[in-house]
Request: fold
Amino acid sequence: SQQGEEDPQALSIQEGENATMNCSYKTSINNLQWYRQNSGRGLVHLILIRSNEREKHSGRLRVTLDTSKKSSSLLITASRAADTASYFCAGSEKLVFGKGTKLTVNP
Amino acid sequence: ETGVTQSPTHLIKTRGQQVTLRCSSQSGHNTVSWYQQALGQGPQFIFQYYREEENGRGNFPPRFSGLQFPNYSSELNVNALELDDSALYLCASRQIPGGTGANVLTFGAGSRLTVL
Reply:
């Protein structure tokens, strides 16, 4: 399935620290996307990385993709309390999501 | 008009009733997907509509049905409501095929359904 599975399920860090979350998937993909969800709201697209890319940056976000391992990671640098949210990954066409990583950034 | 809008934002139904949730896609988007998100879980894919036809479905029973209209707005209908149908229902739209932004979903804020 193109469903992404995020790891860890929960992550708690202090403001200013970096947060790393991982994503694994099972089938070939054309691209992989990361989304963020604030509590009880809709998901917001963060970043898309194509299958022929290995790394991509957007502001404080860094995404890597390893198609041989069918895995991706999302790094948020210099985290802020406002980054507290759940983060989801999904691959390609159907955009099927896993359970997400719940990130808490403590002030 | 930009963005995806959903209505109603909250509603309460009783078991056995029927519900219709509505979604207005982002301007220029021809594809809409519906997701069910139970508390503490990730969004579960219900189905996707492209050019008014269902072109993908998740593991949901036939009592979950949908429509997409020529103006790309959409409805999700759920018959014979069960307690487990209580969830946040999310609508998301995108443009297929597209350019650089292809496949990126734009989500609405969701409709929270409570079944008593």
